[in-house]
Write a structure and sequence with these properties.
With 688 residues, the chain is α+β, with helices and mostly antiparallel strands. Helix content is 15%, strand content 40%. The chain has 4 domains: 5-137, Immunoglobulins (Immunoglobulin-like); 152-457, Transglutaminase-like (Coagulation Factor XIII, Chain A, domain 2, Alpha-Beta Complex); 471-582, Immunoglobulins (Immunoglobulin-like, Sandwich), CATH 2.60.40; 588-683, Sandwich (Immunoglobulin-like). It has a 9-stranded mixed sheet with strand order 1-3-7-6-5-4-8-9-2, covered by helices on one side. A 6-stranded antiparallel sheet has the order 19-18-17-14-22-23, with helices on both faces. α7 crosses α8 (277-291). It is found in: Cell membrane; Chromosome; Cytoplasm, Cytosol; Mitochondrion. It comes from Geococcyx californianus.
């Protein structure tokens, strides 16, 4: 027999990509999911493959120093039956000189970039052909994969969906912000693999790092550390919270992860400026979805940052309601992290499922700024000893807040205040643009027997389970929404639930604030020395907050913190109520003109009305949408936008993919920043 000569081959990128749900990553490279077969075609010249005469085998390798023992290299012959627990190759069909072969990885294979080599031998003669590279990803569709997710709608939302909503604002006024995750956009997959190869664990021991890339727990921990740059590890984002962002992008201005990851790559893996919690979480979510791990961004309202680990956050207020910063413990208005879905074979049974990963640099874990994966079930049960970092997240959703009122002579009085931490934990619903409340996955109902049990296990007695002044109640209410550029009222509502008259002093103080709890200058106050409450009576006391007072010091988080102190003259008891008022930005209007079809030009008309009493200068719009626009489109407006006038422009774009997509818009100017809007667009497929 003459030698078997391989002339051409076809990795069938398009067909395999379609079957492996990776087609949107482009048909220039072969991207497949582990545990699922993929087909390649081999074309021999001269004569075809003869069973029993010719032997065919494949070599696959990943990482810089592949070895069989660590799973980064495999040599396997073409056989008649697939092998479940190892790499295998099976002949599918033969047509003359053309041979179709199905290759399959085990569902526990290492993810990453592989090289593929074919070895042919006839008798003693053999040849070797390097036939290209492919990328292997986690597979949420395979029951044996540790990231297997049963529900198809959930797999679509948490692995395949390229856009989503991130919840912000305040507990009393939850807002959603559109985000372009863009995990299938050009170059993002190679940037994510590059991120794995930049991590310090890889640089320390490349072979060990690559051999652990079969484990989503390990990958999640690496990604959580690499999205921030706090360890001099060439991480993706630099965090900043002081409202001074002139030498970079304000965290509020981003609308997607693609721009951030591309900047990181283009600047030679220098950190991109600047991120805050939702930016870190969204970028980590993009990387995890890109690698095939089901992931979502979650928001916890009134999130505790307990630096000394005692599950108590002490806050100090002056008698006028001004906050004093005495400890590093903080209550953030909201805090975002990521949940990724995976089994935890490293733990006892019962902890599979959603795992919390927090890439925002807050505390070190095993010497590195990363957090998780922490099983959400372990947080709920108070199992603080389990890996990784359960106590930190347990505190974020469960810590107690104690407000101390500091008198002029320096003495302190503990106030009465209802439980606030860990409210309305939120994520985008599956398949819809609505909010899903997942608080129950993190904690048992407040005041329940089960909650007491968990706190007992966590050695934590919650003070709010014990005290509440039955007689006097204090609440802060808003009559209607507070709009940027307008004056508005907040009301302190005081009620006396006893049959005796009560004499009190009421103080109200409003200050602009950032979402991480720090406050700026005062923008409104009131002091009523003698407020008398009849038995069973309720009084509502208004505080007018003027734009001319808050406009200059409002941060990009658009928050005003209102503190009310009610002191009862007779007992000296002090009741504290706090409310974060979210100042609403104007709406961005988006009209789509034309017939929304794949590869057909569409026009978006985008506009916004200036609600302020002064002109807006240096105005520009940024628009992007996965599969809709070609990257980011920026439109600078030449003229200032006068009060009550419209800023508008038209954008042409040609959608590349059919299906539902979000066109996401951000508006920036000197006085109005980080204004977001989006429009869902359903693109009809091109007729075949």
């Amino acid at each position: 027999f003459a030698d078997l000569v391989l002339e051409t081959w076809d990795l069938q990128c398009e067909r395999n990509g379609h079957e492996h749900r990776t087609a949107e990553m482009g048909c220039q490279q072969l991207v497949v999911r582990r545990g699922q077969p993929f087909t390649i075609t081999l074309n021999f010249s001269g004569r075809g493959y003869e069973d029993g005469v010719d032997k065919l085998a494949f070599n696959i390798e990943t990482g810089p120093c592949p070895i069989e023992a660590s799973g980064t290299k495999s040599h396997f012959a073409v056989t008649d039956f697939p092998e479940e627990s190892a790499w295998s190759a099976v002949i599918q069909q033969q047509d003359g000189g053309s041979l179709s072969v199905s290759l399959c990885s085990p569902p526990s294979a290492c993810i990453g970039r592989y090289s593929l080599t074919l070895e042919t031998s006839t008798g003693y003669q053999g040849s070797s052909y390097h036939i290209g590279h492919f990328i292997l990803l986690f597979n949420a569709w395979h029951p044996e994969d540790t990231v297997f997710l049963r529900d198809e709608d959930e797999r679509h939302e948490y692995v395949l969906s390229q856009e989503g909503l991130i919840y912000q604002g305040s507990r009393d006024y939850i807002t959603s912000m559109p985000w372009n995750f863009g995990q299938f956009e050009d170059d993002i997959l190679s940037i994510c693999l590059n991120l794995l190869d930049t991590n310090p664990k890889f640089l320390r021991d490349q072979n060990r790092d690559c051999s652990r890339r079969n484990d989503p727990v390990y990958i999640g921990r690496v990604v959580s550390a690499m999205v921030n740059c706090n360890d001099e590890d060439r991480g993706v984002l630099a965090g900043r919270w002081d409202n001074r962002y002139e030498d970079g992008m304000s965290p509020m201005a981003w609308i997607g992860s693609v721009d951030i990851l591309k900047r990181w790559k283009n600047f030679g893996c220098q950190p991109v400026k600047y991120g805050q919690c939702w930016v870190f979480a969204a970028v980590a979510c993009t990387v995890m979805r890109c690698l095939g791990v089901p992931s979502r961004v979650v928001t916890n309202y009134n999130s505790a940052h307990d630096t000394n680990g005692n599950l108590v956050i002490d806050r100090y207020l002056s008698e006028t309601g001004e906050e004093e910063q005495r400890s590093k413990d903080m209550i953030w208005n909201f805090h975002c992290w990521v949940e990724s879905w995976m089994a935890r074979p490293d733990l006892d049974p019962g902890y599979d499922g959603w795992q919390a990963l927090d890439p925002t640099p807050q505390e070190k874990s095993e010497g590195v700024f990363c957090c998780g994966p922490a099983p959400v079930q372990a947080i709920k049960e108070g199992d603080l000893q389990l890996k990784y970092d359960v106590p930190f997240i347990f505190a974020e959703v469960n810590a107690d807040v104690v407000y101390w009122v500091v008198r002029p002579d320096g003495s302190q009085k503990k106030s009465i205040h209802s439980s606030v931490v860990g409210k309305n934990i939120s994520t985008k619903s599956v398949g819809r643009d609505s909010r899903e409340d997942i608080t129950h996955t993190y904690k048992y109902p407040e005041g329940s027997e089960k909650e007491r049990e968990v706190f007992g296990k966590a050695e934590h007695e919650k003070s709010s389970l014990r005290e509440e002044d039955e007689g006097l109640h204090l609440k802060i209410k808003l009559s209607e929404g507070a709009n940027n550029g307008c004056d508005f009222d907040v009301f302190a509502v005081v009620s006396n639930n006893t049959d005796t008259e009560r004499a009190c002093r009421l103080r109200l103080c409003a200050r602009t604030a950032s979402y991480n709890g720090t406050v700026g200058p005062q923008c409104g106050m009131k002091d009523l020395l003698n407020l008398t409450l009849e038995p069973w009576a309720e009084k509502s006391v208004p505080l007018r907050i003027l734009y001319e007072k808050y406009g200059e010091s409002l941060t990009q988080d658009n928050l005003i913190k209102v503190v009310a102190l009610l002191t009862e003259h007779q007992s000296g008891d002090i009741i504290v109520a706090i409310r974060d008022v979210y100042i609403q930005n104007p709406e961005i209007k988006i009209r789509i003109l034309g017939e929304p079809k794949q590869h057909r030009k569409l026009v978006a008309e985008i506009s916004l009305v200036n609600p302020l009493a002064t002109p807006l200068h240096n105005c520009f719009f940024v628009v992007e949408g996965a599969s809709l626009t070609d990257g980011q489109q920026v439109k600078e407006l030449e003229e200032p936008v006068e009060p009550q006038a419209q800023a508008k422009f038209r954008l042409d774009f040609v959608p590349r993919q059919a299906g539902l997509h979000k066109l996401i818009v951000d508006f920036e100017s000197d006085k109005l920043v980080g204004v977001k809007g989006y429009r869902n667009v359903i693109i009809a497929p091109q007729p075949k």
